[in-house]
Write a structure and sequence with these properties.
alpha/beta; 22% strand; globular; seven-stranded parallel beta sheet; binds glutamine
Length: 535
């Protein structure tokens, strides 16, 4: 068996250059050559995980099948590679320190002074090598969050420096930088790149490959200049030019020969390594780019000012629209601003409505207004998590006639004096912390719409929530035409509701968006878009 190879992706000059996309693209290209690949993200912030972060901070909180609340880059990795990630794929500085401090409290350091080097760096290295330890992967691609030179990323860069020595040829560093175009001078400028490489070198790390983010093509001469200044071979200076869709990036990086340069530098004989099979991927990208007719979807949420807060939902919609040969036109609608008076104006022209996940009471009334409008006007509607919960409450209020139906999350007094449609299931939560997190099994009723969508009886989907449908109301809901069509059998929990008389009105307690990939778009999103375009 060949040793696992470790590739690090660092970033310089500015943040938001798309390190995650470059790392995922490289992962895809290596995977398409038949290698087993996993991507990892190291985040330099002190939060132990992003679970407690407001979505306005870092965008969506992604959830892995094993119930880890993770950085949204793991979503890119899964969407690109189609391989599940786990807790070990995302590590924060908070978790590194927490582990080291726990060890210190247990006395594991035998009275030694605990320091950044070697104790923190050892823990970082342990977390990197953990992924390769079982021999499951040929390549572990680790993205270092933040920008080189940040105080926070020092211990990570130092760990990379040490690993470079320990692993030799089995380790490689790709540095992503930015080459700005000065319009007045009509010139691309490489100085920021030179400086950021210098910052890395000052920390003892020499990058093997440079990927230059740019808005204009970088000439061979300029590449030669960068190579000269940065101690990198000219063939290892690649460009990543702006593209309309992130899904073009792997194809562009293939044209730049990123995978070839990586493999050659790591000692592979290219003549005996299969070429990357990107046929299916290219088919998807072409469908995405060539779709002419639009499908217009409204996404109702409380964090829409930052679209990254709904990253996986938006990407799932893009996958499913392309699958259905449609171009996605997305209306992001702030639920706080939606009400019974303006709902027809705002939603009158859309083909489908998604009511997004979310926590707390803000924007709730707008969600009720959107749901009632979708329900009464036969507009395809998908409620996700809080979206399914608000669907339940809206139905209880306006169809079953419980004017005071509510959820204890929205109104803590609900338990005592109004109809509690969504309740906190203490007995389940006591087992697993404060939320139901990760993948849980769900059984679909055979006579349901969801069964015809999934085409199977047993599914498994990821969760992230505290509240559950109150089973005391199942019978009444079903009598009135809202079928509880998916159940978690072990804990007797309602996972899916669907309105039998409606064209497509489905609420899911779980998050299908976490498992939609480029090659396998999620059936619920495919079905939703299909219904939206079916006039
Ligand atoms: N607020 C709801 C709960 O905790 C739903 C959370 C969500 O939408 N992810 O149950």
């Amino acid at each position: 068996m060949k040793d696992t190879k470790y590739i690090f992706v660092t970033g310089g000059v500015t943040s938001s250059l798309g390190k995650g996309i470059i790392a995922a693209s490289l992962g895809k290209l290596l995977q398409a050559r038949g290698f087993r690949v996993t991507n990892q993200k190291l985040d330099p912030y002190i939060n132990v995980d992003p679970g407690t972060l407001n979505p306005y901070e870092h965008g969506e909180c992604y959830v892995t099948v094993d119930g880890h609340e993770a950085d949204l880059d793991l979503g890119h990795y899964e969407r690109f590679l189609g391989v599940e990630t786990h807790k070990a794929n995302n590590v924060t500085t908070g978790r590194i320190y927490q582990n080291v401090i726990n060890k210190e409290r247990r006395g594991d350091f035998l009275g030694k002074t605990v320091q950044v080097i070697p104790h923190i760096t050892d823990e970082i290295k342990r977390n990197i090598k953990l992924l390769g330890a079982k021999g499951d992967f040929d390549f572990v691609i680790t993205e270092i969050g933040g920008t080189v030179g940040d105080i926070e990323s020092f211990p990570y860069i130092e760990s990379v420096r040490q690993l470079r020595w320990e692993l030799g040829k089995n380790c490689m560093i790709i540095h992503l930088t930015y080459v700005p175009y000065l319009a007045a001078a009509k010139e691309l400028k490489t100085k920021p790149t030179q400086h950021s490489v210098k910052a890395l070198q000052e920390q003892g790390v020499q990058p093997d490959i440079l990927v230059l983010r740019t808005e204009h093509n970088i000439s061979a001469d300029l590449r030669k200049k960068v190579a000269l200044f940065c101690n990198v071979e000219t063939s290892a200076v690649l460009q990543s030019i702006d593209v309309p869709s992130i899904y073009r990036v792997p194809l562009n990086m293939q044209m730049e020969k990123l995978d070839e340069v990586v493999l050659t530098k790591m000692g592979y004989d290219l003549d005996n390594t299969p070429a990357a099979d990107m046929v299916k991927w290219t088919e998807f990208v072409e469908k995405l780019e060539n779709a002419k007719e639009e499908v217009r979807i409204a996404l109702i949420g409380k964090y829409v000012q930052l679209p990254d807060a709904y990253k996986s939902i938006i990407e799932s919609l893009i996958h499913a629209s392309a699958y259905n040969n449609r171009k996605l036109k997305l209306d992001l609608i702030l639920s706080d601003k939606l009400n019974d008076e303006n709902v027809a104006l705002k939603l009158g022209k859309v083909d489908g409505i998604i009511v997004a996940p979310g926590f707390g009471t803000r924007g709730m009334d707008g969600k009720f207004a959107a749901l009632q409008y979708a329900r009464e006007n036969n507009i395809p509607c998908l409620g996700i998590c809080m979206g399914m919960q608000t669907m339940s409450v809206e139905f209880a209020r306006n169809v079953l006639g419980y004017a005071d139906a509510n959820s204890t999350e929205i109104d803590p007094n609900t338990k005592n004096n109004v109809v509690d449609i969504m309740e906190e299931q203490k007995n389940i939560l006591d087992l697993g912390g404060t939320m139901r997190l990760g993948a849980f099994k769900c059984k679909l009723k055979k006579n349901s719409k969801v069964y015809s969508i999934y085409k199977k009886e047993n599914i498994s989907e990821r969760h992230r929530h505290r509240y559950e449908f109150n089973n005391a109301y199942i019978e009444e809901f079903e009598k009135a035409g809202m079928l509880c069509s998916g159940m978690n059998v072990e804990s007797n929990l309602v996972e899916i509701i669907e309105l039998t008389s409606h064209k497509w009105y489905i609420g899911v307690q779980f998050h299908p968006e976490y498992s939609s990939t480029v090659i396998n778009p999620h059936p619920l999103f495919i079905g939703f878009i299909k219904a939206a375009i079916d006039k």
